[in-house]
Specification:
mainly alpha
Length: 366
């Protein structure tokens, strides 16, 4: 009886263990996260719950993310930019909105802007749109802008389109400018804008182009313009270029502009450069420019530089400009300064007489 009980008890225990294992396995299957849900590929949109974007960041709310992307379209960015009250901020945001716009985006933006009510905002939007169009499709953008100019007489959008074209193809834009049916004054202005922008981006290339292309830009000439832009970036490189130019008025203008800008950047460095130059008209021109800049702080030291100028006409004209400035500040001090300077007695006497004559005519120095 007891043996039978032991066998029966052992059998019951075995059956219980087997049943428990089977039940546990079944529960495990039911509670597994993969039991009733298909595994989604990495980065897929999961029914609006979780989205993994291209950078690997997790974004929640699938349909909401799509809406945010739509809000960042060029058109929406332009509308938000135009709503800004600060003109500087508005213009900057308009430019940012179009910085990566495609040609199709630009065309849509143009259609949107053309029907806006006349305002400063519309003019700003049109300017940025035409500039971007010029970057992407210069010839057609300029052709369209020429039509607008013929209809309105306002050259601003034409200048904007040309400026954009110049940023991507300066030579083509300059060649087109020379053949446009516009006034000489407008052609000169556009050419100047294009060459100035080119010299800002690549002064070496602009200088090489200018060497073989005589373009009219007004106000000092083409070499002076390039010297101005180049010397603000790298005065020593600009000086090397200016010193290599053919002798003449263009070179002298370039040297004068170069020294002025160099003084603004580093007065001592500019003075060291000028002092190393050989005597002659080039050095006289550079000393004159240097002296006028030094005179803003120390007119007495400026006259010491002037005394080293060999050309009599350049020396006196430079000394006169410094002396006049000093007379406005301190007439008695200016006379004493001139008297004790290293200038020749003839130059001093000439300057005293010029000052007296101007004062007698009622053109004082106050």
């Amino acid at each position: 009886m007891s043996g039978t009980f032991r066998k029966t008890g052992w059998l019951s225990w075995v059956l219980t263990v087997v049943a428990a294992m089977a039940l546990g396995f079944g529960i495990g299957r039911l509670s597994s996260p993969e039991s009733n849900v298909e595994k989604e590929p990495s980065g897929a949109v999961s029914s609006g719950r979780i989205i993994k974007n291209d950078s690997g960041d997790v974004d929640r709310g699938g349909s909401e993310s799509v809406a945010i992307q739509n809000q960042d379209s060029t058109g929406d960015q332009l509308r938000r930019a135009l709503a800004l009250a600060d003109p500087k901020l508005r213009n900057r945001e308009l430019e940012n909105s179009l910085s990566r716009a495609s040609l199709e985006d630009v065309r849509k933006a143009l259609e949107w802007a053309e029907v806006l009510p006349e305002s400063a905002g519309k003019r700003a939007a049109m300017a940025r749109i035409m500039e971007r169009w010029g970057q992407l499709d210069g010839a057609n953008a300029v052709a369209y802008a020429e039509k607008l100019f013929a209809e309105t007489g306002n050259p601003d959008l034409l200048k904007d389109a040309m400026r954009g074209w110049g940023q991507t193809d300066p030579i083509a834009s300059l060649q087109n400018t020379q053949s446009m049916g516009v006034s000489d004054g407008l052609r000169r202005d556009i050419t100047r804008d294009l060459m100035r922008d080119w010299a800002d981006r690549n002064p070496q290339a602009a200088a090489a182009f200018a060497a073989s292309n005589l373009l009219e830009v007004g106000r000092g000439g083409l070499t002076s313009l390039i010297a101005d832009r180049w010397s603000k970036q790298d005065p020593q490189a600009a000086a090397n270029w200016a010193m290599s130019l053919p002798a003449g008025k263009e070179q002298l203008r370039a040297l004068d502009q170069l020294v002025q800008n160099w003084c603004d950047l580093n007065l001592q460095s500019a003075a060291d450069f000028v002092s190393r130059q050989q005597a002659g008209i080039n050095r006289d021109t550079m000393v004159g420019a240097l002296a006028r800049e030094v005179a803003k702080q120390d007119p007495a030291s400026a006259l010491k530089w002037v005394a080293t100028i060999q050309d009599g006409g350049v020396q006196e004209s430079t000394a006169w400009s410094i002396y006049q400035r000093a007379l406005r500040r301190d007439p008695e001090g200016a006379q004493s300064m001139l008297q004790s300077s290293q200038l020749s007695n003839a130059v001093k006497q000439s300057l005293f007489e010029r000052a007296a004559s101007k004062s007698n005519r009622g053109g004082g120095f106050q």
